[in-house]
Design a protein that fits this description.
The complex is a heterodimer of chains A (154) and B (405). Chain A contains 5 helices and 4 strands. Chain A has helices at 9-16, 65-78, 83-99, 110-117, 129-143; strands at residues 29-35, 40-48, 54-62, 150-151. Chain A starts with 8 loop residues before the first helix and ends with a strand. With 405 residues, chain B is α/β, with parallel strands linked by helices. Chain B contains 15 helices and 17 strands. A 7-stranded mixed beta sheet of chain B has the order 4-10-9-8-7-5-6, with helices on both faces. Chain B has a 4-stranded antiparallel beta sheet with strand order 13-14-17-16, with helices on one face. The longest helix of chain B is centred in the N-terminal third of the chain and has 21 residues, at 58-78. The chains are: A alpha+beta (154), B alpha/beta (405). The A-B interface holds A 3-4, 6-7, 12, 16, 37-41, 62-66, 125, 127-128, 131 and B 339-344, 347-348, 351, 358-360, 373-374, 398, 402-404. The structure holds pyridoxal-5'-phosphate (PLP). Pyridoxal-5'-phosphate (PLP) binds at residues 28, 91-93, 121, 123-124, 169, 173, 198, 200-201, 221, 362 of chain B.
Chain lengths: 154, 405
């Protein structure tokens, strides 16, 4: 396999020009995530409305292309989704990274599915799965009001 | 030096990594092992094994002899005065913890100062941090300059009449800077301050002679010296071992045990509690023989040549920034590539069979000082050749290509 399957154009694009990389206005929840092995760090800002819908989401952080791209893609994908739906999307995403299953999530557009699938190359690099999932776990922490920092080594 | 011959002594190089020949540039992390070391461990378990120092049967005698012969080899290798000064630990980390804990317990009190540098590996900071916490001591950091080295004046400046120990690396595992250990020891001697040297990167790459260096403590990790994991050495001057308390308690390190009183033997026994990593220690004797057969002078000469070639080649790539530019440098090239995170570099290089390390290399203080979160590090061993460097340079170009930088 070519290394390009890991670093697909979509991944590189999101890695270099991450979307929603800021502190979104009016966020009401946030959480930090840290991967001490690589030094990847993210801080997720979340605005959940009364019906637990993701009204807005953004992140700040520093790390490898995979972690930044994954955080960027996450914010684009789950903005406007109910929290429960977002959790389902994460489940599919994890299955794709760990089992290599195809992604076909009904609640997402074809474009969104394609974008998420650009990270499927991570499956062959077990050391990098943590990079791809850090932002997602941090998002869950923020939504569920867990106070401690997400630590991939704990 | 014929690295083809050297490589042929290391079975690992027969393996393909991702279908490519292994280009191993992670020896600062841990070196590969020659067949003689691997075979020695196997032979010890097959023919000579028993626990040492506890039984009177023949195997116990043989095993004890092999173990103690290794201690003697270490003594000669580093030119210690006696085998009592050689303590086997599980790694350099444990060796430093042993000193921090026992010396700290006895000699460091509230307000006393521990002098270390910004170059230190966490192994030579965290143990002192514990003493800082336990005793209310102060840790002073000698600053590292933009070249990634610590000037002796920085150390001079920080020595005070409260300084109770100076703990410094011999060779930085990030910038490759070789510290002026001898000068620091001379300086400290005048003020009667003991010096601990973290010799993790010094021992595999430099000629080390305890009489010449004159330091009080020297910590070694044998797995970085072509030896087995699980073995470290603490060299300590006998005068310290005579007065410091024991470190861990248990079997083997006692003299007489009563319900109300326990007495302890002298060094090294006092510091070697419990069953030791016997086979690995015996295996380490072959690492020392390997280094002596090749010759430490030849190793130094060879690695210098490859290092210079490597620095030169890598710097040709405009997107690469080499971390540090110390005058006196050994076997380590840490670098960043503009626009590419070190972990992405390591993954792309690995596809070409090139093994490097990415991260902060257990030196967060230094990385912060350099204004970076992480770096990529290529580190050399006796088996590396110019063509290894060429593969590395090409693999770096591939990073540029993948990331369009
Ligand atoms: C300078 C330095 N000190 C200490 C250590 C710790 O060695 P070990 O983990 O074998 O105890 C290392 C190895 O990573 C090192 O490079």
């Amino acid at each position: 396999m070519d290394i390009k399957e890991l670093y697909q154009e979509i991944v590189l694009d999101h890695g270099k020009n991450p979307r929603n990389k800021n502190k979104c206005v009016g966020f009401n929840k946030d959480a930090k995530g840290h991967n001490p092995l690589c030094g990847d760090k993210v801080h997720v800002y979340l605005k959940l409305d009364n019906n637990k819908k993701v009204e807005d989401i953004s992140f700040e952080g520093e790390g490898c292309a995979i972690s930044m791209a994954s955080a960027s893609i996450m914010t684009e994908t789950i903005k406007g989704k109910e929290f429960n739906v977002a959790k389902k999307i994460l489940e599919h995403f994890l299955n794709m990274l760990k089992e290599g299953s195809k992604l076909g999530i009904n609640s997402l557009s074809e474009d969104q599915n394609t974008t998420m699938m650009s990270l499927s190359g991570v499956k062959r690099f077990p050391m990098r799965v943590k990079c791809a999932t850090l932002a997602w776990h941090t998002f869950i922490h923020a939504a569920e009001d867990k106070n401690e920092t997400v630590n991939t080594e704990k | 030096m014929d690295t083809k011959v050297i490589k042929s002594k290391f079975p690992i190089f027969k393996n393909k990594i991702n279908g490519k020949p292994l280009i191993y540039l992670d020896s600062a992390n841990s070196s590969q092992k020659p067949k003689t070391v691997i075979d020695r461990i196997s032979k010890f378990y097959s023919k000579e094994f028993s626990n040492i120092g506890r039984s009177v049967h023949s195997l116990a005698v043989t095993a004890t002899n092999r173990f103690e012969e290794t201690r003697d080899l270490v003594k000669k290798f580093i030119n210690a005065k006696s085998t009592e000064e050689i303590i086997f630990t599980k790694n350099a980390t444990e060796a430093i913890n042993l000193v921090a804990s026992t010396y700290g317990e006895k000699f460091i009190n509230k307000g006393d100062e521990i002098l270390i540098t910004e170059l230190e590996h966490h192994a030579n900071y965290v143990p002192w941090h514990f003493i800082r916490q336990r005793k209310g001591a102060i840790i002073k950091f000698a600053q590292c300059n933009e070249k990634g080295e610590v000037d002796i004046d920085e150390i001079k400046k920080l020595i005070s009449n409260k300084t109770k120990i100076i703990a410094i690396t011999h060779l930085s595992n990030v910038t490759g800077a070789i510290m002026p250990v001898k000068k620091i020891v001379d300086l400290a001697n005048k003020k009667k301050i003991p010096v601990l040297v973290d010799g993790c990167q010094g021992a595999p790459h430099l000629k080390i002679d305890m009489q010449e260096l004159g330091c009080d403590f020297y910590a070694i990790s044998c797995h970085k010296m072509y030896g087995p994991t699980g073995v470290g050495v603490l060299y300590a001057k006998k005068k310290w071992l005579d007065v410091l308390p024991p470190y861990q308690g248990g079997g083997g390190m006692i003299e007489e045990v009563k319900k109300d009183q326990i007495t302890f033997p002298g060094s090294p026994t006092k510091y070697e509690a419990g069953t030791l990593q016997t086979a690995e220690v015996v295996g380490f004797s072959e690492s020392l023989k390997f280094i002596q057969d090749v010759g430490i002078k030849n190793i130094m000469q060879h690695e210098k040549e490859i290092l210079e070639y490597g620095l030169n080649e890598i710097k040709k790539n405009n997107s690469v920034r080499v971390i540090g530019d110390p005058k006196d440098r050994g076997s380590i090239i840490s670098f960043t590539i503009k626009g590419i995170h070190p972990h992405d570099i390591a993954t792309i290089l690995d596809e070409d069979g090139v093994a490097i390390r990415a991260g902060h290399h257990c030196c967060q203080i230094l990385h912060e000082k350099m204004g970076i979160a992480a770096s990529a590090r290529a580190s050399l061993g006796v088996y590396n050749s110019k063509s290894d460097i060429d593969v590395l340079s090409n693999a770096i170009k591939k990073c540029n290509k993948v990331f369009n930088t």
